[in-house]
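Lab meeting tomorrow. Please check the following:
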Amino acid sequence: MSRHQHKPDKKHSDAEHPDTKDFGTEEISKSQRKRDMHALQVLGQQLVELPKEQFEKITLEENLRDAIVDARHIRQHGARKRQLQYIGKIMRSIDAEPIQEQLDTLQGQSSQATQALHNIERWRDRLLKEGDNALEELVKLYQQADRQYLRQLLRNAQKEMLANKTPKSTRTLFRYLRELFDQET
């Protein structure tokens, strides 16, 4: 064998060579495990930060629920961080997918509620700006709307704005629109 010819490495046969390895039996890399653990910690933090009424709707194992409740009461940064790590550790031993699905459902409902409020605000602002034109369109869409009451609210709201008074009628208009739109759903 000449000096420039390559000798096969005795340590690696073709079957053991990294380029020919069977990818189906590969272990998860350390980096991937860290990313997975961090994702579980983030999920745990989202659960900790949920409003109480939403948190109570989520089905969790008792030890995880207790750890999250404890974390909600911790105010010191270091202690809270350790508790979040503990929550992540607990979550490694359970299937987190159903928890994520429940959280996504809650957040979807929350975004729908936000969209509904924005719709009400747009109608209120439009009524205040356009007056009767917007009122007629609203009454066509919502036939149970009380046209006379809406006109009164609009007049009072405009007077309050001109006099720089508290927007009491504007708030009442918003509440009335919310009740009106809720009747439709």
Q: What stands out?
A: Residues 8-22 have pLDDT under 50 and may be disordered. The longest helix spans residues 97-130. The chain has two domains: 28-94, 103-184.
